[in-house]
Amino acid sequence: MRILDETRDQLAVRFAVLFPHLDERQRRLLMAAEARMLGHGGVRAVARAAAVSETTVRKGVFELEAGEGPLGRVRRPGGGRKRVADLDPGLRPALLALVEPDERGDPMSPLRWTVKSTRALARELTRAGHRVSADTVAGLLREEGFSLQANAKTLEGGQHGDRDAQFRYLNEQARDHRDSGQPVISVDTKKKELVGEFKNSGRQWRPAGDPVLVGVHDFADPQLGKAVPYGIYDLAANTGWVSVGTDHDTAAFAVESIRRWWNGQGRSTYPRATRLLITADAGGSNGYRTRAWKLELARLATETGLTITVCHLPPGTSKWNKIEHRL
């Protein structure tokens, strides 16, 4: 018994050294050769030393005695564990029913109005009797032609019958002012930003483990407030002007920004100007319904002596405002 234990220990050491360098069939043949050398009881001793089943060792003995040539591959065609989708034919249809409920499944699907992550899909499939992991779900979705995608702003909606005439009029006004040497500006409020140590999506190179520390919550600092950028783009000069306020995006702030642009840049660029054309969105602080916007512009016209014309882009077309593309 002691000799058998020593032999088993030696085999275990030998297998531990050689197995990492061999494929499955080569391991079986090695174990079979050792078992034949041991004689009676060799299969059991080798199986215990290699920590495998006796069936695996016997299979190697059979292959060794049959004198089969090299297969050229680790497993025979069709060998190995079967895929989950092959063992569970209902898995793929169940998955498609969850991700496309309107077309292939129940419109009252429990995931109809939720974010369909692979983990959420795997949990719902497991709850329905299809045991599957999130990685398997991701693989099946890729096989079906799915990929992670964001929304795409492409649907324009209905178009007004006068849309072409509206833009023709706006273009004619801009051309008339520009050709006669009068300023044409495009205005808009840009994205508001919190002032202070707040989290943002930007990144910068820093020593590992030493990030910039910012506040846990994104509550505006009552002392600092928000930065409200109001942009003014001069079409003819191809230049921009930005005023940054810390209070609110009001009509008074919008007109004050235009006033500062005129006094700081516009007056020197257009010393002979008598008219000013402003193109703006239809809403917000410079919206066509805002009475304060009109009142403040009237005051600016009185101060500067300019005849001020405002052309509002139709609702839903603000993306064509020049400042959106240039500033």
Labels describing this entry:
327 residues, 12 helices, elongated, six-stranded mixed beta sheet, Nucleotidyltransferase, domain 5, alpha/beta
Short synopsis of the structure:
The protein is an alpha/beta fold and 327 residues long. The protein contains twelve helices and six strands.
CATH class call of the largest domain: Alpha Beta
Main structural class: alpha/beta
The low-confidence runs, each spanning 5 or more residues with pLDDT under 50, are: 102-114
- Percent range for β-strand residues: 5-15%
Largest sheet: 6 strands, mixed
The beta-strand count equals 6
User: What does the radius of gyration come to?
Assistant: 38 Å
- Helix percent reads 40-55%
Q: Which term fits the overall shape? A: elongated
What is the CATH architecture annotation of the largest domain? 2-Layer Sandwich
First-to-last CA distance: 88 Å
CATH topology of the largest domain: Nucleotidyltransferase, domain 5
Domains (count): 3
**What is the mean pLDDT?**
84
Which H/E pattern describes the elements? HHHHHHHHHEEEEHEHEH
By DSSP (H or I, 4+ residues per run), the number of helices equals 12
What does the secondary structure layout of this molecule look like, with pairings?
Blueprint: H1 2-18, H2 24-38, H3 42-50, H4 54-66, H5 84-87, H6 91-99, H7 118-127, H8 134-143, H9 163-179, E1 184-189, E2 193-194, E3 226-234, E4 239-245, H10 251-269, E5 275-280, H11 291-304, E6 307-312, H12 322-326
Parallel strand pairs: 1-5, 5-6
Antiparallel strand pairs: 1-3, 2-3, 3-4
Helix pairs in contact: 1-3, 2-3, 2-4, 3-4, 7-8, 10-11
